[in-house]
């Protein structure tokens, strides 16, 4: 793949460019807002995304090696008007130094974020995007590419089958918080021969970052012939919101997601499909879903009969992907998200021994696409609103310096702290229900938080009342043995209930 950083123009690249494209060098973009797509004046963000192939709005959200993107702020632009967008006037860009972007052939597309709830610009219902234009980009050129924002993102139909159905609920709690009707969605996989029994065990599987209720399709066939899962209701609730992943906690910034799920959606869903109640209700998830599942079990100990959390996001904020968010360095200087104590760049993701992306590069690109990225999602979920009403940041995007005082406001969401300080109170309601599995070589360096909690839980003498494992050699994935243990537990508890009823 050709790098996107500028280099000397080779003879080969001159040959590959069409004469029209090469003579029509493009240095900026004239973006027209179609009046049908914008019946009212638009104030918000417009992106111009680049790509070497395919549709730029899809590649702009990639985590690793994503191509260049520009963000512009528009104010009160009426439908039918055209705005001139020049890279030099962008509110943010990636790469930060736009002069590094290589001249040459690019595919470009304009995207307007209009959705109030969509996580990714260009994919939220109501967002608007242009057709893809092929240009010869030249930063010195005076000509502008014409892009028309004229295609509105429509809702994607949920494909129901005999066993897979969509469940929707307008949440009173989230609607009150946001000031408009807020709909929660969940994909539901019904048991074989649903309706033959009065009630069924229910498994709630919270998807990881970027996942939605459509993750239910992945559960089809996971059980296999005669599997206990085929006698369960499996539910994948949608945790996504404008800022990213709700984690299903009650948040000062994004609303009461935990309450909406546990007190509103779950009772309504189980009444409709025949859930067997809290005694046979389970929760699981991977990555951000792993954190969410553990949070739900700990926060609502009587509402779930067991949790199986796989490679969860940081469960101890003293080790937030190897960063202590609470305590400054010796001498009082703040720690830094971008560099470690030796001044070396912090890696954020790896594959084996190869670093895939650094914290700084990840955070700076996410800042261009903000909101909706993983780091901003943590802040939106755990931080209270700042003076501007947006979730308070815990680090400076320009310098990487951590605001430790802001980060300490996260402590009430620190699962390790909660369990270690409240176990005596929670023991009777949680003992035997918690199962946490981390990978020894987690792709996103998440194992450290689990290792720290495991050590502290051992010192506190409570480790024997839960399962906390760091699996040798495992990266960021489902732990199959842990998943099998969950299925076996569901089956055993259901048989135990059936036996008890026969004895009555």
N-to-C span: 69 Å
Overall structural domain count: 3
General form? globular
Rg is 25 Å
**Secondary structure category:** alpha/beta
Q: What's the pLDDT, averaged over the residues?
A: 92
Explained architecture:
This protein is α/β, with parallel strands linked by helices and 504 residues long. The chain has 3 domains: 11-152, no CATH class; 164-316 and 414-503, 3-Layer(aba) Sandwich (Rossmann fold); 347-410, no CATH class. It is built from 12 helices and 25 strands. The chain has helices at residues 11-16, 19-23, 56-59, 172-178, 257-273, 288-299, 359-369, 374-382, 404-408, 415-430, 447-460, 480-503, and strands at residues 25-26, 28-33, 42-51, 69-77, 82-85, 92-94, 104-112, 128-129, 133-137, 144-149, 151-152, 164-170, 183-189, 202-206, 233-237, 240-241, 244-245, 250-251, 255-256, 281-286, 306-310, 347-351, 354-358, 434-439, 467-471. Mean pLDDT is 92; it is low at 1-23.
Task: List strands and helices in order, with pairings.
Layout: H1 11-16, H2 19-23, E1 25-26, E2 28-33, E3 42-51, H3 56-59, E4 69-77, E5 82-85, E6 92-94, E7 104-112, E8 128-129, E9 133-137, E10 144-149, E11 151-152, E12 164-170, H4 172-178, E13 183-189, E14 202-206, E15 233-237, E16 240-241, E17 244-245, E18 250-251, E19 255-256, H5 257-273, E20 281-286, H6 288-299, E21 306-310, E22 347-351, E23 354-358, H7 359-369, H8 374-382, H9 404-408, H10 415-430, E24 434-439, H11 447-460, E25 467-471, H12 480-503
Parallel strand pairs: 1-9, 2-10, 14-15, 14-20, 20-21, 21-24, 24-25
Antiparallel strand pairs: 2-5, 3-4, 3-7, 4-6, 7-8, 7-9, 8-11, 12-13, 13-15, 16-17, 18-19, 22-23
